[in-house]
Specification:
Oligomer: heterotrimer
Number of strands of chain C: 10
Strand order of the largest sheet of chain B: 1-4
Number of domains of chain B: 1
Helix content of chain B: over 70%
InterPro entries (chain A): ABC_transp_permease, BCAA_transport_permease
Chains: A mainly alpha (about 290), B mainly alpha (about 325), C alpha/beta (about 260)
GO biological process, one term (chain A): amino acid transport
Family (chain A): Belongs to the binding-protein-dependent transport system permease family. LivHM subfamily.
Largest interface: A-B, 44 and 42 residues
CATH class of chain B: Mainly Alpha
CATH architecture of chain B: Orthogonal Bundle
Shape of chain B: globular
Membrane topology (chain A): Multi-pass membrane protein
CATH architecture of the largest domain in chain C: 3-Layer(aba) Sandwich
Strand order of the largest sheet of chain C: 6-7-8-3-9-10
CATH topology of chain B: ABC transporter involved in vitamin B12 uptake, BtuC
GO molecular function (chain A): transmembrane transporter activity
Largest sheet of chain B: 2 strands, antiparallel
CATH topology of the largest domain in chain C: Rossmann fold
Structural class of chain B: mainly alpha
Chain lengths: ~290, ~325, ~260
């Protein structure tokens, strides 16, 4: 059953795209900045987990955690020493700054790990399950569960908790948010740490399945952005649905049409959405037109 | 042209004209002519990007892709179909122009981040196509045996001929661009950069100008790509990937985003940096580029060249007085 | 009364659930200075934005000199002869004072990419003409001595005047001024009133003016229309409006408290 097989692999990568898209959404919701370095957090997460596991011989769960924390710290560093000084600059400079930071991360990763791809052992050992004649890797389920858990958790966090609501207020109107006593700076910081950590979690989860190398970040980032836009920038559920959709479309293309062009699927989808309906399928045009950028 | 530009242009012509004569006589640096030919080719791209990004305020992360379209048109038409190089170059321009127009019209309706992402996505798609259409492009292993540049029996073969051809083109494009930015069209670009709403209310057809400057910059990139193809006589998709598009942004930023001379100086500087001075640090190249771009974008948005030039000018005035 | 230059027919504009303009029907005769007043949020700037094409009205139609203009992009409306200034001064700060006004001549000049890039004689002649005319407008508003300064370096009062010069350079028949006196001191406001009257008298331009400064409004406008929650509350000459009971109640009355 090829179709089911493609569906499984599509859902797996789709969950990763959803996680990357979430990363964009969190920062966007708090600052209205699009962080072009988002994909590099994923790459860094995967490679750091390999480092903690293979070089420092941490138990796998610790390696996972350590990697997420480290990348979260990179997000902190990025906000504290780069974004904080650049936030008031024009959009053009902001874009270039986040691109520059992504190149710095990529260049550093190349120095540490070289150009070879690395692998990581799966979270749980064992034969793949056979469902309707298609093999489902145990790791795929991990990826899917990690992704869904994070989406659900974040949606609740942003819609229910005090902190989540406060973070959203920062983007809508930072001055008003500050006046009602929300520590805007702290919220921005939190958003960068959170989105870096989430990207890293996705990176660790996917590495056992598809390996990881220093220059995977840009493409992952762009596809994730495709999911974020398709789902309507800032919408968590939209990101999840759109991410899974892109993943499935990509894997069907790889299966039935051409594996070489599978990477182009998400990109073409991104361009089409941007050209036809830039507010996405869950977004609102009127809200989009009053955003700062 | 303003008086200042005339003086700079004079110095520029002198320097560029004499450079190969001086360099050729010194054995250790005689290959600098080759580096300068590349720098000239890349300058054509960065002048276009400077018009687009510095003057009209629109970002593009697809310049390397447009360069690739021109280069591969030249490459494919001369190798597979035996076309004369000059004709292939023209076709490259037409194809790039049409593609850039098709991408530009919907893309340039988008603001800031979205525009950057759209051009980035387009650039990656072109890169994927170059890798996948193996029968035409040779795929990742490259396209070999591209003919040199020539018209009829007249072939451009010596490094000197190439050097003067390329830099002659740079000079022409530079003059054109300097004139353009000091005209009603240049003012329209600056107005769009500063405040689209106000520009439009004053009667500037904003989307039309955005598309036109986008196409212009793509045409310059395509032309540079064709020159590159005929000069190197070998192409591979790696030369037209995302990293190169970012390098072009960096070249413009080093020069000062709104400084056409700066774009050329920045391009020459970075070309020498990566081909000569940083060669032994090849593994650090990406990191160093990232750091330079980060520092310039954060702290010296007016660009290194502009800052240094202003300092020198002030010092000169003080010493003179 | 004179021919109607601008006509609004039941123009409405919604933002989400908010009605910024509700069924506004109104006409501006040619050759007058017409003020629009009303409390904050009455829809004055929204009306300007609909007329100048920043966004289209949600429903209704707008005619300029008999031509329907609602929904046209703003550069086309500008080409028909409508120019404007902005509430928060929208100068091109990356250009000099003179260049700002020269940009205003964009529609009156033709040179294309090739002519500009190669500096053809036709373009040079045109450029001289653009400079000459731009200086005329700077002279008209009294900024000719500042032409080489960066536009952003001027004090606010002069920036507002420069914005008017830039708008005039497009040779409009209708000029929309959005709170031109906002942030100006008394002396500057007086000069501004003088300038607005000269724009009408010397250049023959019809002026539509959104303004909070009641002295300026009463002194220099021929007609006043009062907007209140997106609808026309009253209109007439300044003294008629001043004595209109509804107006006193919702606007002047509340201001007096």
């Amino acid at each position: 059953m090829d179709f089911i097989q493609y569906l499984f692999s599509g859902l797996t990568v789709g969950a990763i795209y959803a996680l990357v898209a979430l990363g964009y959404n969190i920062i966007y919701n708090v600052t209205e900045i699009i962080n072009f370095a988002q994909g590099e957090f994923v790459m860094l997460g995967g490679l750091l987990a390999v480092f903690y596991r293979e070089v420092l011989h941490f138990p796998l769960a610790f390696a996972f955690l350590a990697s997420v924390v480290t990348v979260g710290f990179v997000g902190y560093f990025f906000e504290r020493f780069v974004i904080r000084y650049a936030r008031e600059q024009a959009v053009l400079s902001l874009i270039i700054i986040t691109i520059a930071f992504s190149i710095v991360l990529k260049g550093s990763a190349m120095l540490f790990w070289g150009k070879d791809p690395y692998t990581l052992e799966p979270f749980t050992q064992g034969e793949p399950w056979i469902i309707f004649g298609a093999a489902l890797q145990r790791q795929s389920l991990w990826v899917f569960l990690t992704g869904t858990a994070i989406v659900v958790g974040l949606s609740l966090f942003f819609s229910r908790s005090y902190y989540g609501k406060a973070m959203c207020a920062c983007a809508d109107n930072p001055v008003a948010a500050r006046m009602v006593g929300i520590p805007v700076r702290k919220m921005i910081m939190l958003s960068f740490v959170l989105s870096a950590a989430i990207g890293a979690a996705g990176g660790v989860a996917i590495t056992p399945l598809s390996l990881m190398e220093y220059d995977r970040g840009a493409l992952l980032g762009l596809k994730g952005f495709g999911a974020a836009v398709l789902g309507g920038l800032g919408h968590f559920w939209g990101a999840l649905v759109a991410g899974l959709f892109l993943g499935i479309a990509e894997s069907m293309c790889a299966g039935y049409l051409s594996s070489g062009y599978k990477d182009a699927v998400a990109l073409v989808a991104l361009l089409l959405v941007l050209f036809v309906r830039p507010q996405g399928f869950f977004g609102n045009a009127e809200v989009g037109s009053i955003k700062r950028f | 042209m303003r008086k200042k530009d005339r003086i700079v242009f004079l110095f520029f012509s002198l320097f560029v004209g004499l450079f190969p004569l001086v360099v050729a006589s010194i054995k250790a640096v005689s290959h600098y002519i080759d580096v300068m030919i590349f720098a000239g080719i890349f300058s054509l791209v960065s002048i276009g990007l400077c018009l687009l990004m510095g003057y009209a305020g629109q970002i593009s992360l697809a310049q390397a892709a447009f360069m690739g379209i021109g280069a591969y048109c030249s490459g494919i038409l001369t190798t597979h179909y035996g076309w004369p190089s000059s004709l292939a170059l023209m076709v490259g321009l037409v194809v790039t122009g049409v593609v850039a127009y098709g991408v530009g019209v919907p893309s340039l309706k988008l603001k800031g981040h979205y525009l950057a992402m759209a051009t980035l996505g387009f650039g990656m798609i072109v890169h994927i196509v170059l890798n996948e259409e193996v029968e035409l492009t040779g795929g990742p292993s490259g396209l070999v045996g591209i003919s040199g540049l020539g018209i009829g029996n007249f072939q451009i073969s010596s490094p000197f001929a190439w050097y003067y051809l390329v830099w002659g083109c740079v000079a022409t494009v530079m003059l054109f661009s300097l004139n353009l930015v000091r005209s009603r069209i240049g003012r329209a670009f600056l107005a769009i950069h500063a405040d689209e709403r106000a520009a439009q209310a004053m009667g500037v057809d904003v989307s039309n100008y955005k598309v036109k400057v986008f196409v212009l910059s793509a045409l310059l990139a395509s032309f540079a790509g064709s020159l590159y193809a005929h000069y190197v006589e070998f192409l591979n998709p790696g030369s037209f990937g995302l990293m190169w598009s970012i390098k072009f942004v960096l070249m413009v930023m080093v020069g000062g985003i709104q400084n056409l001379w700066g774009a050329v100086i920045g391009t020459v500087f970075l070309t020498f940096l990566s081909n000569e001075w940083l060669h032994f640090l090849a593994d650090f190249e990406v990191l160093i580029y990232g750091l330079i771009l980060l520092v310039i974008a954060m702290f010296i948005p007016q660009g290194l060249v502009t800052v240094v030039a202003t300092k020198l000018l002030k010092k000169g005035l003080r010493d003179g007085a | 009364m004179a021919r109607k230059l601008l006509r609004l027919e039941s123009v409405s504009r919604k933002f989400g659930g908010l009605d910024a303009l509700r069924n506004v029907t109104y006409a501006v005769p040619e050759g007058v200075i017409q003020a629009i007043i009303g409390p904050n949020g009455a829809g004055k700037t929204t009306l300007f934005n609909c007329v100048s094409g920043v966004f289209p009205p949600t429903s209704g139609s707008i005619y300029f000199d008999g031509v329907r203009i609602d929904g046209l992009p703003s550069h086309k409306i500008a080409a028909l002869g409508v120019s404007r200034t902005f509430q928060n001064v929208a100068l091109f700060k990356n250009m000099s004072v003179l260049e700002n006004v020269m940009l205003g001549r964009h529609r009156q000049s033709r040179a294309g990419f090739l002519a500009c890039g190669f500096r053809l004689p036709s373009m040079k002649r045109e450029e001289q003409e653009i400079i000459r005319r731009a200086r005329e407008y700077l002279d008209f508003v009294g900024l000719v001595d500042e032409e080489n300064k960066p536009a952003g370096s001027l004090p606010l009062g002069k920036q507002k005047i420069l914005e008017i010069a830039r708008a005039l350079a497009t040779e409009p028949r209708l000029l929309l001024l959005d709170e031109p006196a906002g942030g100006l001191n008394t002396a500057e406001t007086e000069q501004l009133g003088d300038l607005i009257r000269r724009i009408k008298k010397t250049l023959g331009v019809t002026v539509l003016l959104v303004e909070h400064d009641m002295n300026l409004v009463m002194e220099c406008s021929d007609l006043v229309v009062v907007l209140h929650f997106g609808t026309v509350l009253a209109s007439g000459t300044p003294s008629e409006v001043k004595n209109n009971e509804k107006v006193i109640e919702v606007y002047l009355g509340s201001a007096a408290n």
